[in-house]
Amino acid sequence: MSESAVEWPAVGLTLRVDGHEYPVPQVWIGDSLLAVLRERLDLDEPRDGCSIGECGSCLVTLDGRPAAACLVPAVAAADRDVRTPQDAAFEAAREAVVAANASPCGFCAPALTVAITDLLRRNADPGPAAIREALAGLVCRCAESGRWIEAVARAKEAGVGDGGTRGPAGGDSGEMAVLVIEAGETES
């Protein structure tokens, strides 16, 4: 049988994205959450920077935990809470990023808003070293870390992270945790 004759399995699923349910009738079981968000749901954010989990551009939250959408199979996100950088929950962090000019070209701004929000939920008062460490997983060519530190300070002033919620590790290490779920794996 030739490669072109191979039929890849497809499934139907429902994605809960930014508080809305989206039925997606035909998803190839190998499609990433990023591919489905961008190509099937026509969302501009998250961004696709590398498709291999190296740049952080595709950062979303999955059940409240940061996740590289390019590494999460879409089938693993079915019936779970997916929040993209477009969600209203990230608005104050987005405004802080803009005010600090922390993403001059704008490409990494969506992921930066997710990462800043997660950082401030885990650590209400991170110092410059903790901020640099927490945001080190994001690749940006046009901003220096001083702008990111200012963006975190502005986000903190705007109340980002208030509410007593804790990140996935439950600690204050300042390290950004990225969740990757393999197909068929369940979270305990």
Automatic annotation (TrEMBL):
Q: Does the keyword Heme apply?
A: no
Which PROSITE patterns does the entry link to?
2FE2S_FER_1, 2FE2S_FER_2
UniProt entry tagged with the keyword Magnesium: no
InterPro entries membership: 2Fe-2S-bd, 2Fe-2S-bd_dom_sf, 2Fe-2S_ferredoxin-like_sf, 2Fe-2S_ferredoxin-type, 2Fe2S_fd_BS, Beta-grasp_dom_sf, Diverse_Oxidoreductases
2Fe-2S ferredoxin-type domain segment(s): 11-88
A Pfam family:
Fer2_2
Gene3D superfamilies in alphabetical order = 3.10.20.30, [2Fe-2S]-binding domain (1.10.150.120)
Keywords of the record: 2Fe-2S, Iron, Iron-sulfur, Metal-binding, Oxidoreductase
This one is known as (2Fe-2S)-binding protein
- What is the scientific name of the source organism? Catenulispora pinistramenti
User: What lineage is this protein's organism placed in?
Assistant: Bacteria, Bacillati, Actinomycetota, Actinomycetes, Catenulisporales
